[in-house]
Amino acid sequence: MDQRDGVINADPATTTPTEGRCQRWRNQSGFWLLGLCNNFAYVVMLSAAHDILKQQESQNATAPTPAPGLQATGNSSNSSRYDCNPVSTAAVLLADILPTLLIKLTAPFYIHKVPYGFRVLLCVATATISFLMVSFSSTVLMSISGVIFASVSSGLGELSFLSLTVYFSRDVLSGWGSGTGGAGVAGAFLYSALTQAGLSPRVTLLIMLIVPAAMLISYFALLAFPPSFPQWRSREASHRGSQERQPLIVEDDDYVQNQREKEDRQPGPLTFSDKLHVLKGLWRFIAPLALVYLAEYFINQGLLELLFFQESLLSHAEQYRWYQTLYQIGVFISRTSLYCLKIKKIWLLALLQCVNAVLLSFAVLYQFLPSVWLVFFIVVYEGLLGGAAYVNIFYLISTETGDREREYAMAAASVGDSVGIALSGALAFPVHNYFCSL
């Protein structure tokens, strides 16, 4: 075995150049698809947020009761100068992020006991349930429950796959980041395009059941795992097993000494105090990541639904969907940029994102933006900042943490974006109520 940069790889002496290139291609493609599939349901639920809440308005109206499932939307009418849903789309955002936040806060302390294979099966199952529940929903409560299942799948998958990268060459992190960005584009674009083409939101979500199946195939059929990878065993069990597999009779003193030195170089799993110490050092990464996501999701779920241009040919729901789509295009571009550009000034990215949030807050209050096309440009720029912050922060973590701490650090730091998103959802509620009361 060859352990390079804290990454376990196949023995280079038994791997031909052609096999090495093939494995590298498989792993890059596998992590790209895993990133795509993992974030897909999460993105689709945010893109459908306006429709999910529009269903509540339709059911509370005096008009005849609509058919079960999400309804295609038109413009709502109310006494506010804004075209407001009764509830902010932040309600869907919170349902989409709070379970993820809970998982990311707690799982790094126990998830190492669950083998990776079982984790992936759980992610696939919860993603499937989420699409089914939301597509067949007859109440907003049922729709929100489906969103929660999507959140569980995304949160567990993100921290698991980020930890998984330490078993492969470091360049798979670029594939993962690009794939998560691709999920934004694919999820938001497909939902917007299919519903605007005339398909009901229910049929659109049922079509997307192919995504959990693709995750299953990507993980179990595409990735080229190293021989020692603990697929169905926990890392602790694998470590104990390697210590127990020793000859019963050993006469060579040099062999015994070499084995003892080898064990000393391979310390056991991190203790609870070790993890707290690592977590303390991670705050310089977690804080800017949280700030970036606080600003951008406050924009996406607190402000964009209030930026409605009545003179546009697009309806309110259509404008909202394309805001989400263009934002995700920006995210995809910047998350893919790690292949050719690396940024160390992550606090600058956070500051620029906060400037965006302030600018669009005043735009909602004073309505001085002349066209929806200008907002389209701003949300693309917003996505560029958010995606760049995500991939560069995790790249810096992968290069600046020790071999023993890297797997835990990658999982623990993922809490940063979830904290920022949850805070933005809580902040969006009073902001939505304030503007809609004007």
Automatic annotation (TrEMBL):
Record region (Disordered): 1-21, 57-80
Membrane topology field: Multi-pass membrane protein
| Biological process (GO), any one | axonogenesis
The superkingdom listed in its UniProt entry is Eukaryota
Where is this protein primarily located? membrane
**Keywords assigned by UniProt, alphabetized:** Lysosome, Membrane, Transmembrane, Transmembrane helix, Transport
UniProt key word Transport:
yes
InterPro entries associated with the record = Battenin_disease_Cln3, Battenin_disease_Cln3_subgr, MFS_trans_sf
Q: Which residue windows are transmembrane per the record?
A: 31-49, 90-111, 118-141, 147-168, 180-199, 205-225, 346-366, 372-396, 408-429
Indicate whether Iron-sulfur appears among the record's keywords: no
The UniProt entry's GO CC annotations, sorted and at most eight, read: endomembrane system; lysosomal membrane
List locations, semicolon-separated: Endomembrane system; Lysosome membrane
The protein's matches in Pfam families, at most eight in alphabetical order, are given as: CLN3 (PF02487)
Query: Hey, which family's this protein in?
Result: Belongs to the battenin family.
Protein name per its UniProtKB record: Battenin
